[in-house]
Amino acid sequence: MSQATERLRRYLDDELGECRNEDVEKRLDELGTLEAALGEPQVDAELDTLSALANETRYTLVRVLVAAEEELCVCELNAVVDVTESGLSHALSKLVDAGLVEGWKDGRWKKYRATNRAVALVTVLEGSVTADE
């Protein structure tokens, strides 16, 4: 029996007052169902999104776009973060790939705006910090 299964057995024994092998197997099946319900593609997509935010430049860009509540030109974004044009392009590309910003050409200018996903994530993060204070 693995160490994790043995710990689960001890936990169930504490919770149920008595633990049988069937109790452990039933709980392992329930936990397996919960894990399977997440689905690997969903987990991968969520991790890509979180990974895109795990950089100061990219996070700042998302926060600025969410706060702006409108599209901003890449030249405006470049004034906000201290990175090269290449670094800015790479950061925005990663945010687009993660579904956090949308970008398009408007004549000779490139514009970006936050997606609903970005707004939702920033809102949750702001609420979590406020709740902890």
Walk me through the structure.
The protein has seven helices and three strands, in the order H-H-H-H-E-H-H-E-E-H. A hairpin with a 2-residue loop joins strand 2 (101-106) and strand 3 (109-114). The chain has helices at residues 3-16, 21-38, 40-53, 56-68, 74-80, 85-97, 116-132, and strands at residues 72-73, 101-106, 109-114. The protein folds into two domains: 3-38; 44-132, Orthogonal Bundle (Arc Repressor Mutant, subunit A), CATH 1.10.10.10. The relative contact order is 0.10. The mean pLDDT is 87. Strands 1-3-2 form a three-stranded antiparallel β-sheet.
Helicity, as a percent range: over 70%
Radius of gyration (Å): 22 Å
**Inertia-based shape:** elongated
Strand order of the largest sheet: 1-3-2
> At the first level of CATH, what is the class of the largest domain?
Mainly Alpha
CATH topology of the largest domain: Arc Repressor Mutant, subunit A
Distance between the termini: 44 Å
- The CATH superfamily name of the largest domain is Winged helix-like DNA-binding domain superfamily/Winged helix DNA-binding domain
Global structural class: mainly alpha
Say what oligomer this is. single chain
**Biggest β-sheet strands, sense, barrel:** 3 strands, antiparallel
**Can you write the helix and strand succession as a string?**
HHHHEHHEEH
Mean pLDDT: 87
Tally of DSSP β-strands: 3
Number of separate domains:
2
Instruction: Estimate the strand proportion.
Output: 5-15%
Please tally the helical runs, counting DSSP H or I stretches of 4 or more residues. Answer: 7
Instruction: Indicate the CATH architecture of the largest domain.
Output: Orthogonal Bundle
- Spans of at least 5 consecutive residues with low confidence: none
